[in-house]
Write a structure and sequence with these properties.
Elements (H helix, E strand, L loop, with lengths): L1 H13 L4 H45 L7 H11 L7 E10 L2 E3 L11 E13 L10 E11 L2
Antiparallel strand pairs: 1-2, 1-3, 3-4
Length: about 150
């Protein structure tokens, strides 16, 4: 009887049946952390694209016809383009250039026509799913678009 017990214990010691479970237990947490990191990166990248597109849409609207003086309209159009982002902050401005210098839009530019520009800046904050060492828990995304008014 003791001989059969010893043989069974030797077989259990040589068995490799539990090795895969141990490897899975070691590797699975690392894989889960990597998957969450990839999802966070994708979320931030996608939000950055949405914010940039919204800023471009607002500046495009402001540059059309005589909309460059309508700051509230540019901001509203920017927020309309990014309806999915409820925390979007938008600022807009229009200004004139005489050569490379900023000038008053009511002044003349020495016979050269003034260039009227509109600029829209859209800003949003994305909270990460996890706290990563060396990274903030929230990432601020700010995108600007500047167009020449027609």
């Amino acid at each position: 009887m003791t001989g059969s017990i010893l043989r069974r214990l030797k077989l259990i010691g040589r068995s490799e049946m539990g090795g895969a479970m141990v490897e899975l237990a070691v590797v699975l947490p690392v894989l889960v952390l990597m998957a969450i990191g990839v999802m966070d990166y994708g979320r931030v990248f996608f939000r950055s694209i949405m914010v940039a597109n919204a800023a471009r849409a607002g500046a495009d609207w402001g540059a059309y016809a005589s909309n460059y003086t309508n700051q509230a309209g540019m901001q509203a159009f920017t927020k309309l383009d990014a309806q999915e982002i409820s925390t979007l902050k938008v600022s807009s401005q229009s200004f004139c250039l005489c050569g490379d210098a900023t000038a008053s839009c009511s002044s003349s530019c020495g016979g050269v026509p003034l260039r009227v520009l509109v600029e829209v800046t859209a800003t949003d904050t994305v909270a990460l799913l996890m706290n990563y060492p060396g990274l903030p828990d929230k990432i601020v995304i700010s995108q600007s678009a500047r167009y020449r008014a027609q």
